[in-house]
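pinning this so it doesn't scroll away 📌
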Amino acid sequence: MLFDAKGEKVIAIKRETPTDVDLAHGWGEEAGGFACGIAANRERGRQEDIEVSVTVKNISFKEDRMPAISPFGVELKDSAGRLIEPKAEFAAEEAKIASSTCPPSGGGSYVGQSDPLTSYRLGERYDRLAPGKYEITVKLCSPVISGLLVSNSVLLEIEASK
């Protein structure tokens, strides 16, 4: 398990999914036997210091091979509900996921296991964000899932950089 900056909250789970511990903010809705969860290393801080981990758990998808999971699309909204666009290098890949083109990427996990797919820093993915509150959600797709796998949402507070 990976923990937040204070060592108090679980932000990612690898391998066997424990039954007595969960991600800090839980998981999104189950789709196709999978669930996606996100958590941040800190929920308040400077943009460049906030890192979000993306974990997928296999609840009940039983196949003799691991399914491919796509790169992820991130939906970041400000406190007024306006969608914040990522930097150009991320926008093209996210457009594929939004249209359900589903470009395959890495493998998923076996039943009862969770795998951290990736983590990313808000400072690398977005241009400078104004101080304030934001809500973040992640979406991914897989050829074995009908529709998109949507994570839980996490509230973040961006502070001014010094």
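📌 and the second one:
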Amino acid sequence: TVLNNDIRLVIVRALILMRNRGLIDCISLCELFFLRLLQCQDRLLRVTIQTHIINDIKKQNEKHKNHKLNSTLQNFMYTIIKESNAIAVKMALI
């Protein structure tokens, strides 16, 4: 079934809030966002996801570099680049 754009945005914001409170792992949330939600045609949703991913990675590396997280995310981004979804590839290259 297809969700309404507003409902989808509320769900994404709830997931971001759970991530900010430490209830969801950064890697699992990034995988979810890249694999499922970036395939949506809703531009506001994609911008919200992109902003969160960038800010979350910056926040994780603010005090000291988290090499394990960075290498895991880099490997994941390389697999995304090999896929055929143009929107996800563009976001992975940013």
